[in-house]
Amino acid sequence: MDCCTLQEKLFESELFGHEKGAFTGAGQQKKGLIEGAAGGTLFLDEIGEIDPTIQVKLLRVLETGKFRRVGGTIDLNANVRVVAATNRGLESAVETGEFRADLFYRLNGFHIHVPPLRERRNDVPMLAEHFIRNHNFSRRIDKQLTPAAIRKLVAYDWPGNVRELKNVVERAIILSRDKRDIRPEHLAFGAGVRHSGALVNLSFNHDPTLEELEADYLALQLEKYSGRRRQGGRCDGYQRAQCVSDDQTLRTGGGYMTHHLGDYRTACP
Predict the structure, then answer these.
(1) Is residue 92 pLDDT above 70, yes or no?
(2) Per CATH, which fold does 118-178 belong to?
(3) What's the whole-model pTM score?
(4) HEC profile for 89-140?
(5) What pairing do the DSSP bridges indicate for beta strands 144-145 and 249-253?
(6) S-S: 19 plus which of 71, 78, 84, 148, CB 3.0-4.6 Å?
């Protein structure tokens, strides 16, 4: 369970469950994750983000092995092993009062420290290959990292750890297009792809098609070259690119770019 994605009431309902009529919309009884994981393990990710009210109730579960559903009056047994993870220093959160000391010591029965990625660089190639194999965009083409690309990944300090590595690999898969090899120039570190000092957002709220990715990137090139299609296509790696549109608009504003390209096609010898 990701502890930082739900509001307090929803988090409590997900964790402990609720009785019918406990709150507006609670049309039937629901078992929580503690009941669902009975006899097994409940993993709480980002435990340092939970609300103080939830901290108290979670502490009660760990100390007594009992809990109640939201809106319930009967104590239920919690037969579950709890594993928690955080990227925060909980010791400092305890000192500032953001995290309960008694809950910290109860959770800290067996501590496993996972060092940051910069301290285990030998893991970087293995993780990168894993992300390549599992990414949707790589299924059509058997992508692989070149030795130079691997060296560049290993040399980077990874302030965002594994999440940042995953994002970098996903962008590299997109930028390498239909080529099998992922080369150093395809590796763009940071929150987005930097182009002439500007941050370009290539993210979508759905799995984009290759045509959508091509259209977005071509729009960037056309803006850079003020609509001169020949230079934009050449910079994009094409020998020749043509955009045909009844209503072509390129405009920027509010930190993002919107465009309508209509019929977009490329011709490569």
Answers:
(1) yes
(2) Helicase, Ruva Protein; domain 3 (1.10.8)
(3) 0.59
(4) CHHHHHHCCCCCHHHHHHHCCCCCCCCCHHHCCCHHHHHHHHHHHHCHHHCC
(5) unpaired
(6) 71
